[in-house]
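Q&A log
Question type: sequence-to-structure
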Amino acid sequence: MASFSKLFLFMQAEERQKRITDHLQKVEFSTLDELSELVDASISTVRRDLTLLEATGLVKRTHGGARLLQPQSQEFIFTERETRENDEKDLIGKACARLIPPNQSVIIDAGTTAFHAAKHLGGGAPQIITNSLPVANHYASNGNVEVILSGGVIYPRLGVMVGPIANETFSRMHADYAIMGSGGITEEGITNSHNLLIDIQKEMLRAAQKVIFCLDHTKFGRRSVSFLCDLGQVDSIITDTKAPPALLEHFSSKGIEIVLAH
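Response status: OK
Response body:
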């Protein structure tokens, strides 16, 4: 009977670890809380599972979570995403920069379209708050701009800092504007592809007086994995001329400023 119990516990642990690995193959990085909910086990149990998985070389434990060591997907790589709809993103970035008055504090998220906006802000925003490594690097030698980079765990392929420390950074911030991106927008609201990004973006939404979403036409009518916010939290949407007119009209009817980048 004792041997059967040990075998059952082993199979339980093996199943949990497989589910954790499969989940990380999809999202690459996850918090302890997410994994605990995923496998319906305590955080201490998940920590033990991650220790075993780390020993196999599959995952790397981080502060407050774990990340996959050898991701198979190219979906989240910043440089891969940055080249998609590059011309549209650059036009959107220019249009966004023109919307920001001088001498404003600006939160910039880790999206590639938001990065294009950051490049066109120049020295017009004296204070930039971000969790994006490419944005921080872009302004590293600009003496006219104060850059506040959140702490957190570096998510290398995405070029972003994530996790509880990053969340806490933005929970303490206040800014005039937030420039943000997402995985999709529909009549129901805005979604994104990763729970870790969602948590940080929600803090960004709370911290900013005015919220601008920079979205190329491929994001319209698309639902991503996790819900971020409803349309009532959006002040402006900047997009390209290929965005569907019917959806733009709907968003405009909700009081959202629509800017088409030419």
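Response note: The domain at 78-261 is CATH 3.40.50.1360 (Rossmann fold).
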